[in-house]
């Protein structure tokens, strides 16, 4: 059984914008993650420091990585939806 899209989506006029934003947000997250890795490589003892509420830096940083991934994903989704709406308004003539 072949599953194909019900509608042919055609060319996405916002694809270049989505790609640019996605790459930039990935670079932001990758930098944040690389800092985590660098701390673990260079001074792993820092990760044992209790920062807040009995949580050490490793746990806190790990949770921040997870939350930041979610925030960046939501930000990306919002930016892409706005760009798609802008293109849709241009093609329908609404300004």
Would you write up a description of this structure?
This protein has 95 residues and is mainly alpha-helical. It has one domain (20-89). Helix content is 67%, strand content 5%. The protein is built from 2 helices and 2 strands; from the N terminus they run αββα. The chain has helices at residues 15-42, 57-92; strands at 50-52, 55-56. It has a two-stranded antiparallel ribbon. A hairpin with a 2-residue loop joins strand 1 and strand 2. Helix 1 runs antiparallel to helix 2 (57-92). The longest helix is centred in the C-terminal third of the chain and has 36 residues, at 57-92. It is elongated, with a radius of gyration of 20 Å. The protein starts with 14 loop residues before the first helix and ends with a helix. The model has no long low-confidence stretch (mean pLDDT 88).
Query: Unreliable stretches, pLDDT < 50, 5 or more residues?
Result: none
Helix-strand makeup class: mainly alpha
Distance between the termini: 44 Å
Give me the count of strands.
2
Rg from alpha-carbon coordinates: 20 Å
What is the mean predicted local confidence, pLDDT? 88
Largest sheet at a glance?
2 strands, antiparallel
Helix content: 55-70%
β-strand percent reads: 5-15%
Oligomer: single chain
Sheet with the most strands: spatial strand order: 1-2
Write the layout of secondary structure elements.
Elements: H1 15-42, E1 50-52, E2 55-56, H2 57-92
Antiparallel strand pairs: 1-2
């Amino acid at each position: 059984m072949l599953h194909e899209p019900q509608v042919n989506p055609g060319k996405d006029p916002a694809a270049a914008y989505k790609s640019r934003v996605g790459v930039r947000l990935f670079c932001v997250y990758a930098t944040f993650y690389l800092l985590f890795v660098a701390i673990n490589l260079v001074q792993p003892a820092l990760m044992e420091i209790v920062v807040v509420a009995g949580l050490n830096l490793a746990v806190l940083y790990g949770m921040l990585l997870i939350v930041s991934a979610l925030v960046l994903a939501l930000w990306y989704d919002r930016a892409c939806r706005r760009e798609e709406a802008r293109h849709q308004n241009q093609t329908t003539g609404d300004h």
